[in-house]
């Protein structure tokens, strides 16, 4: 019996793993990253300031979806600025784990770089020794469009209405926006160091460019330096921060599902055999 119990425990553990995998992978998928060309000297005060800054970002992300830090230094070129921005619908826990992952990926992507920025599906992290806090920046960082067979003209109108709604302002500060109609859904996010009007301006710009570059694609993402806009049609193939990543996860999930099926089958067999044996022993003392 204890063996069966162990197998049952194993199955539930694996099931939990599979059930939690998609959620974390969708907020943690890599979208883009970049590093400053300048390097700091390892072991320098600059390095300890970078570490202090990144640690502060990670611990702060457990309490809020946005924060900025300035690490002052007697030498101006060693003064560091940094921020993180989580997508507005993330829980504190998801925000914290997303920022932790982004910071660790930044470390791998930008070793000894004086500055760097990294966007995962669920959060954005940036640090540098030049001030960018509160500075509007509409530089396009990335756009990606799905297959161009997505919408008939009715649907395209609906898509444009959804994006239009996302881009309207009632004057209040809305750094995170979601919109949808029928099978079209969309999401927008500003980095919250922008003022309400700068955020509005950034999103209008992003929406205009997104419509132009992706046209009638089934999904589209457009990232400017301080805001992004994304839309997708339900059931559209592979709209993710990184299509390949998602496919990879799908494969892992399939493999795990097969594995679980096998383990369950073995467990059932064990139960069945021990049942048979009991029946056997009771009826006519087998062996
Ligand atoms: C930023 O840091 C790098 C590396 O230490 C340095 O070369 C550069 O001059 C600094 N930039 C500013 C604006 O201080
Ligand atoms: C940076 O953070 C401070 C303290 O949380 C806040 O008062 C300030 O408005 C923030 N600055 C920007 C540009 O977001």
TrEMBL record:
**Gnk2-homologous domain segment(s):** 28-132, 136-236
Q: How does it sit in the membrane?
A: Single-pass type I membrane protein
User: Where does the chain cross the membrane?
Assistant: 256-276
Protein location: Cell junction, Plasmodesma; Cell membrane
Q: What is its main location?
A: other
Q: Name one GO cellular component term.
A: plasma membrane
Question: Domain of life here?
Answer: Eukaryota
Q: Which InterPro entries match?
A: Cell2Cell_Antifungal, GNK2, GNK2_sf
Keywords, A to Z?
Cell junction, Cell membrane, Disulfide bond, Host-virus interaction, Membrane, Repeat, Signal, Transmembrane, Transmembrane helix, Transport
Record's keyword annotation contains Amino-acid biosynthesis: no
A UniProt-annotated Pfam family:
Stress-antifung
GO BP: any one term:
defense response to bacterium
Q: Its family?
A: Belongs to the cysteine-rich repeat secretory protein family. Plasmodesmata-located proteins (PDLD) subfamily.
- Please identify the protein, giving its name as recorded: Gnk2-homologous domain-containing protein
Organism of derivation: Populus deltoides
